[in-house]
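Quick one: structure for this chain?
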Amino acid sequence: MEIEFQELDLRYESLRRRDLGREKRLLASLATAGQQVPIVVVRSSDPSRPYVVVDGYKRIRALRRLSQDTVRATCWELSEAEALIVHRLLSGSAPASVLEQAWLLRDLSQRFGMRPQELARRFDRSVSWVSRRLGLVRELPDIVQERVRAGEVVPHVAMKYLLPLARANAEHCLRLLAGLGGQRIGSRAMGRLYAAYMAAPARGQERLVTDPLLFLRTVDSRRRAPVPETLSDLRAAAAIASRLARRLADPSAAIPEEIRDEGTALVTRAEQAVIRVVRLWKERVNDAGRADTTHGAHAGREGPRSAGHSPHPAHLARGGEEHPGPGNGRGPGAGPALTC
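Got it. Here's what it folds into:
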C-alpha cells in the first residue's frame, strides 16, 4: 500500500546510526530504479499519524530527498514491541552494533516496561547480556551517542576508546570529542590518541584533550618525515651485498689467492658493520613506535596523574562490551542481529 509521509510516526528513527555511504548508494538506486522494497509499519492509535515505522528509515529519508510524497509499505498486524523484536531477530543481513542493540533494549524497557528478564527471554539471551547493554547507554555520554547516530563516530571507536575514557574522566572524554569537531576519526588514529592519553601525566592529558587534532597532525608528519640519505644508503648496501652473493655463489668464479687475506678481513669487517646496522635499525624503529604514543602529549613525568587514571587500557575496559559476533552466536556480545 502507498502511505503519505505525513501519516508516518518516526519514533524509532533514533535506534539506528546513519551510514552516509550506504545512504548515498540507496539514493542513487531509488533515483534510477524506484522503490523496490517496501518499508514495514504497524498501526498506531494516533489518528493523525496512524502508522509507526518499524523498518525503512533510510528509504524514507532518500525518497524525501527525491521530492516524493508517498512511500510503499507493508503493515504487520503486531504490536509495536512485537514488531520491533521480530524485525530485529529476522534481519540478519545488517547486524546491529552493540550500541544499536543497547538503544533498542532501552527503548523496549522504557516505552513498554519490559524487565531485563523478559528482554532476555525474547532475545534468547542471558539477563547479564541485557544488563550490560543497558549499562552502556547509561555510562556513555549522550553527545557521544548522538555522534554515533549521525555517523560521525564509528561504533567500534565509541566502545573501545571513548567508553573507557568516559569511565575514567567524563570531562576529558567530552573535551576530546569537542576538540575533534565533526571530523570522523578512524580506529587506528583514535587508538593512538587513547594510548597517548593513558601514557601521559595530568598536564599532558590536558594538552591532548584540548587539541587532539594537533597531536594527530604531529604524529602523521613524523611518520611521513623523509630520510632520503638513509634509504639511499640502505638500497646501495643491499644491492652491493646481493651482487657479491651472486658472484661468490658462482662455482666457476675462483677467488685469487693474492686477495684472499684482504678479502677475509673485509668480509669480517662488513659482517660486523651489518650486525651493528641491524641492531641500531631495530632499536630506532622500536623507539619511534613507542614515541608515537606519547609525542604531542608531553609524556614526561611532571605532576601527578589525573584521578581515575589506570596504568593500562585493559583496566578501564573491564566490564565494557566486546564486538557483536555473528547473529546466531550465543556468547555474550554475540547477540541476535538487531537491525532496523
